[in-house]
Amino acid sequence: MSGPxxxxxxxxxxxxxxxxxxxxELRNLFYKCLKDGETERSFQVAEITVEHWESRxxxxxxxxxxxxxxxxxxxxxxxxxxxxxxxxxxxxxxxxVGQMKELLLINEIDERMLSLMDSLYIVDSIHNSDELNKLLxxxx
Length: 140
Fold this sequence. Notes:
InterPro entries: Hemerythrin-like (IPR012312). It holds the Pfam family Hemerythrin. This protein is mostly helical and 140 residues long. It has helices at 4-7, 9-35, 39-75, 80-105, 111-135. It has one domain (4-135). Helix 3 runs antiparallel to helix 4 and helix 4 (80-105) packs antiparallel against helix 5. The radius of gyration is 16 Å and the shape is elongated. The chain starts with a helix and ends in a 5-residue tail after the last helix.
């Protein structure tokens, strides 16, 4: 069973907004370090960014998949296609974070990392909008 705040649009929106704002700040800091040639600091910020996506967004995604999504489909089977779409978004984000981790392992901290950060942000923004406006609409 999911926590009560996951089903409340306002509370759920706050969770998403906070995580995305933090991700954007980390992305901007990474870009600045990269632009300024601060290699070691760029690496550190990239590590923190991966940790952020894993601990904030992907852990939240797992909780949604294990609780909220199942409950929503049980309440309304018409949500199944949307839940499949939202779960696919989570899978894409997991894959991008995995690619970031691979770049860290081989010490390739460059524009590719920045592209992955931007892609994560875009996918998560669209995902959050769909989740809030299609799955949780009128769920107060």
